[in-house]
Amino acid sequence: MGFDITSIRNDFPNLQQTVHGEPLVYLDNAATTFKPQSVIDAITNHYSHETSNVHRGVHHLSEVATAAYEGAREKVRAFLNANSTKEIILTSGTTDSINLMAQSYGRALLDEGDEILITEMEHHSNIVPWQMLCQEKGCVLKVVPMNDDGELIIEEFHKLLNAKTKLVSVVYISNSLGTINPIKDIIKAAHAQGTSVIVDGAQAVSHTEIDVQDLDCDFFAFSAHKLYGPTGVGVLYGKEALLDTMAPYRGGGDMIASVTFEKTTYNVLPYKFEAGTPNVAGVIGLGAAIDYLNTLDFTDILQYKQKLLAYGTDQLSSIKDLRLIGTAKQKTSILSFVHPLIHAHDMGTLVDEQGIAIRTGHHCTQPVMKHFGVPATSRASLAMYNTTEEIDALVKAILHAVEVFQ
Amino acid sequence: MGYDSKTELYQQVILEHNKKPRNFGKMDDATHDAEGYNPLCGDQLHVYLHINADNVIDNITFEGEGCAISKASGSMMTQALKGKTMDEAKALFTEFHDLVTGKLNPEKCEHHLGKLAIFSGIWHFPSRVKCASLSWHTMKGALDKEQTISTE
To answer: pTM of the full predicted structure?
Structure first.
């Protein structure tokens, strides 16, 4: 069928608008992606016709909502190529998934002096939960450094990985640099040491095909809203044998088998980790997002985005004095940059005047900013619905900003 | 695409103060100083004041990293506050705060802001209000003897 950009753009109502009198150019997809009409319809349909709680009533609507909710879980399983829906825990997002890992898995696993290995390019959500745990348990956070292209120094990873390393938690694709990490090598090396690996897949899910069995990761976390789905929904995949050993993270309804004041027994996987009424409509929306992606050819999408990346890299590099931050050989369509005359926030406001949305700031990766010696960067992150014309518009707006600040 | 200036945010005065900030640098004999931090953007600046026996600000400087709005605001603040008493500085802080949050319309209300009225349009940019007010919050923190000021 090929990759039909016009048809794809027509599926996203958010793209069809003007901002400050200009056609919107949305280049902030690493923060969140737009939702296709089918996702919006699925959520609207749930609230219009199928509103009900799940796993509870015997009445018609509860059955319908439960089937839709559990149907979405199966779609996630297939999307990740997990073995079983027991391995798919529905959370509120990547951050929630990683906190679940820290509080349940990490807390039981780690003792004083044990080490957790992360990398210099982690998002704060894969730093802070581990720091909190380290403080509580007296364990040590070790950090794999990166080079000035924003690539992990893999020899350092091998040096830091040792018998005391009980857990490796690493980002697959960096949100501020676009770097694609050699995740399979990392997992293989960690397993050889007997260490489990958590993969932060927040950016990876929209930028590469995921097969958790092929990766052989022990855990994989992502958010629906970076995959053309709604906010407030995320996933934690875990190998069943490991999830089985883990204690519940939150107590409440739905996660129990029986409750008396003397003793509570817990529900089976995956419900053991899903206390309280879940985000039913959001999960159904995630299922619809996966359905939407399944109508497209992922290989086509990846090729198209690599083309956008190559074009964007060329065009931005041609701007005098502009410095690209993140020049890894293996990277995805994320372009971070700084200009010596213009602070990122001024850049963001000036290109916004032209209807162009980019992200400016530290992107929740302050250690990355520190590495490159900048307080903040501007970041254009491209999705499958972006075009080379939109990159041209960005370049034109940057040149205008430079003119204003000259 | 047309490139007429659509906003009044980046006026010449602001661009000029950004390029050549006044009273920029450390003050060794400061009687009051504080560090200001905006966690949203990572901007960081330090405000130093020298206040004499009559409670008059006889010298004020600032230094740090920031966007054009925060640098220009810091620069213009130092110009506005030199020679003012502590009470006058605090009163001006309140007026400036009201200005950038849209509570004070400089064309309708009486005020003592002078050139600072140039920041009146910034309340249209909620994410940038803190850029303009960081130096002022830091200055007030220094007067109140607070060490670290965060805009969050």
So the answer is: 0.93
